[in-house]
């Protein structure tokens, strides 16, 4: 098997303005795909699209609040119009709210579930509608949902986040079954990233210190590395390459699967 080839593919990546989403968009574009970034961070998203386009890739940006059904419809319409199709969705947008169970705030938990779970479900909904036969794109495709190693381990102060990412696993598997049985031609998989030192990842390290669980962010990161057989944190490239693989024909007989990209932490 050679390098991942996505020439001719048209992708929409949510949460694409920065962090993992920007890295995933970069990997897809480097493999030959045209990419639409979607995010609520408009200025950052446009700048990331500009930077990726500078290499010659076709990359656009659309504003998207993933919790808004109508905005999803517009984002998919814009993707099809600007890129000339739509056959890859990377459901990456998400937030993480750290809290011990005894300190859970209902409003914060609902907000996180709305972004992480409802947002991903709406993405699958609109991807299926566009990609299935008779849809605005109509050529089938691939959906990759971004879960987390948090769905597979018991780490303190992330109960709500773990629950939301466990839901992504179930959405993925049911979506894959529906797509197959109903003849949509859309493969649906998810990845479980380990901790990556992005802004979001390092915020978690600081939050667990504030919760009284570790003496310092360095100690928190050390505890995660200690639990990881490969002995290091993940990189954006580690996660992005796994997503590109699942979007490609190299994964053509893979659907309904969850791929750990966590250095063995969740085994």
Question: Can you describe what's shown?
Answer:
With 267 residues, the chain is an alpha/beta fold. The chain has one domain (10-194, 235-260): NAD(P)-binding Rossmann-like Domain (Rossmann fold), CATH 3.40.50.720. It contains eight helices and seven strands; from the N terminus they run βαβαβαβαβαβαααβ. Strand 4 (88-91), helix 4 (106-131) and strand 5 (141-146) form a beta-alpha-beta unit. Helix 1 packs across helix 8 (236-247), helix 4 (106-131) packs parallel to helix 5 and helix 6 (199-210) packs across helix 7. The radius of gyration is 18 Å and the shape is globular. The relative contact order is 0.15.
Could you name the key traits of this structure?
267 residues; alpha/beta; Rossmann fold; seven-stranded parallel beta sheet; 8 helices; 7 strands
């Amino acid at each position: 098997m050679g390098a991942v080839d996505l020439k001719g593919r048209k992708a929409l990546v949510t949460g694409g303005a920065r962090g993992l989403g920007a890295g995933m968009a970069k990997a897809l574009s480097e493999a030959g795909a045209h990419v639409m970034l979607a995010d609520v961070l408009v200025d950052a998203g446009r700048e990331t699209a500009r930077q990726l386009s500078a290499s010659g890739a076709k990359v656009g940006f659309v504003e998207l609040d993933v919790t808004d059904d109508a905005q999803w419809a517009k984002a998919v319409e814009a993707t099809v119009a600007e890129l000339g199709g739509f056959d890859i969705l990377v459901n990456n947008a998400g937030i993480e709210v750290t809290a011990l169970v005894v300190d859970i705030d209902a409003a914060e938990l609902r907000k996180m579930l709305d972004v992480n779970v409802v947002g991903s479900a709406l993405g699958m909904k609109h991807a299926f509608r566009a990609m299935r036969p008779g849809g605005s794109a109509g050529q089938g495709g691939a959906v990759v949902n971004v879960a987390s190693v948090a769905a597979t381990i018991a780490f303190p102060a992330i109960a709500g986040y773990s629950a939301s990412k466990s839901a992504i696993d179930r959405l993925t598997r049911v979506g894959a079954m529906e797509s197959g049985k109903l003849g949509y031609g859309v493969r649906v998989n998810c990845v479980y990233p380990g901790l990556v030192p992005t802004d979001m990842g390092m915020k978690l390290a600081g939050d667990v210190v504030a919760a009284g669980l570790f003496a310092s962010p360095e100690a928190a990161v050390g505890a995660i590395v200690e639990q990881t057989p490969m002995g290091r944190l993940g990189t954006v490239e580690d996660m992005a390459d796994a997503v590109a693989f699942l979007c490609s024909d190299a994964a053509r007989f893979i659907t309904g699967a969850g791929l750990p990209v966590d250095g063995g932490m969740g085994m």
